[in-house]
Specification:
The chain is 15% helix and 32% strand. It has 227 residues and is of the alpha+beta class. The strands form five sheets. The chain has a six-stranded mixed sheet. The chain has a five-stranded mixed sheet with strand order 6-18-17-13-14, with no helix packed on it. The longest helix is centred in the last third of the chain and has 11 residues, at 176-186. The radius of gyration is 17 Å and the shape is globular. It starts with 12 loop residues before the first strand and ends with a strand. 40% of the residues are buried.
């Protein structure tokens, strides 16, 4: 007999390219991990200590639709590399960090920029701007055992056929192994954790009815409509 006082919430999963389902435990997002994006957001692009914020597991959404969220008039697209972990631990070395990666995918970090800006000015957390429902449209996760590990390749997004962001993963200030290692100094990472690896310059607003096409070389593309 179960001693749960309510029904257990459903385990959130995201699709994999081989037809499986990847169970999500936590979602970590690195901020300002491309120098050109740091500059456009008004910050020093020099390599300073990384910082992270979190989204919720069920923010990761493969539906191909992004519902324009309430209480915002300025919602931005940010195309990012998704890194899915198969194992974890604490104090993981940079040299062994990739051993913990299950696979990679394409993601968008949709941001209520106006609410994020208000939070920044007040010295408050960013989640009200970042962790809104279905705020991380995603494609399938591709197993590293099939595609290998990704450290370079075009990352881009277009809106209604016009390219808005266009960079290369080799421009990331903190590389995938370094992100994993750094996070493991402050958190105990585990199987099911997801990391979003930051976005290049060119972030900008979307409106209802817009179609975003996000792509990463080697991982395909995802089409997402703002509804």
């Amino acid at each position: 007999m179960s001693d749960l006082v309510i029904a257990a919430p459903k385990q959130h999963t995201i699709p994999t390219a081989d037809g499986g389902a990847f169970p999500v435990r936590r979602v970590y997002c690195i901020g300002r991990n491309f120098a050109d994006h740091a500059i456009e957001m008004g910050h020093d692009p020099n390599r300073e200590a990384p910082f992270f914020f979190q989204k919720n597991p069920d923010n990761l959404d493969p539906s191909g639709q992004f519902p324009y969220p309430p209480h915002s008039q300025n919602v931005h697209h940010e195309v990012e590399l998704l890194i899915a972990l198969k194992s974890g631990g604490t104090d993981i070395s940079v040299s062994s960090a990739l051993d913990h990666v299950w696979g990679y995918g394409v993601a968008l970090d949709m941001t209520r920029r106006d609410l994020q800006g208000e939070a920044k000015k007040a010295g408050r957390p960013w989640e009200i701007g970042k962790a809104v429902e279905r705020s991380a449209p995603i494609g399938p996760v591709h197993p590293a055992s099939t595609i290998g590990h990704i450290d370079a390749g075009r990352i881009a997004v277009s809106v209604n056929g016009v390219v808005k962001q266009d960079g290369d993963l080799n421009q990331m200030i903190w590389k995938v192994p370094e992100m994993i290692s750094y996070l493991s100094e402050y958190f105990e990472l585990a199987a099911g954790d997801v990391i979003l690896g930051g976005t290049p310059a060119g972030v900008g607003p979307v409106e209802r009815g817009d179609t975003m096409l996000a792509s990463i070389e080697g991982l395909g593309e995802i089409s997402v409509t703002v509804v």
